[in-house]
Amino acid sequence: MMRKRMTDKPVLIGGAAALALVVAVGGYFVLTPDDRETAQVEAAHSEGDGDTHEGEAGHEGEEAREGFVALDAEQIQASNITVVALGRGGGTETQLSGRVEPMVDSRAAVAAAVGGRVERVLVAPGQSVRAGQALASLVSGDAATFRADADSAAAGAEAARLAYQRNRNLADQGIVARQEVEASRAQMLSAEAATRAARARSAAAGSPNASGRLSVSSPISGVVTSVQVGPGGFVPQGGVVAEVTNPARVELVFNAPPALAAQARVGSPLRVTGPTGEFDAVVSGVAAGAGGDSGATLIRARPTGGGLPPTGSAVTGAIVTGDAAGALTVPSDAVQTVEGQTVVFVHVAGGFQATPVLAGRQAGGRTEILRGLDGDERIAGTGAFLLKAELAKGEAEHGH
Asked: For the domain bounded by 64-90+325-399, which CATH number is listed?
């Protein structure tokens, strides 16, 4: 321990028992041999602390490396951050204008297959129906005839079958000639064919019962938009009974230049912008020259994720056609904005480094990188936003 002693007299330093004399403000510090040893230990410890502080400063400098987020492999896996390689792609991007339109099978004008009197109306406008559900009940004389013909044909076919079996048994006993057996078999086959035809006509008429009563059913699921008949009214053959629309059956329809018909393919990705924001879609059909006198190509597409905007909404789309082998692409989720700069997080030893890039076109969930990457890097894909948040958090703590 260090002792502090004040004196007005000189201190004698003697031979082997000499003491270290240190001049201090207002007097002298006198160190005993034990004190000197303690002071040396403390000085050595002080020097060690200095090295430690320097090491900590160096470590802090490493952590404070600009744009670096330190994560080990276990932390990356726990955070569900995917590490992906860069892709190759690109091509020519074409802007398209279009609308949200009902699909061809989204509307049904349900008509009566045979003329008849309306006995009951089973639905009302605005009511939801499923495919096969009855909309109205009719009574039809023509339908009764179809049912009677089917029943008669079935009876004739049964009689022909029994005659054939009888002749075959008699032929086995040698009573009937084989020629008669073959003739009865032909009559049986003809009667069965007539039965199938009669039953098909009856089914096409709505499968009436023996009294000629039948139901007019909806061929699709949807909502009844109008009812054209009432109880007691007469519906002619082909007359519309009701209209049904399925509002969920909608698609994107774009007008494209005629030259695009040879380049667009079913399955090509589209990036669509509508009233509800941006979403991805995929081409489901390409019809060259379907645009009428203009000769424009119609491109039909469906969304790859959620639902579409309401029917009639105007949308714009961007489709990439052709190939540019030198273009680099990354998942659009990998591109983040940090302090006004567009960056991707490149996987390096010990974590991820935010690397500024110049982003180009975007389509099909991928973004073209024009500058900033070599092509050999591996980057953070899904979950890159977590790295952006961690980087912002570290900068906030460093500011404090």
From this structure: 2.40.420.20
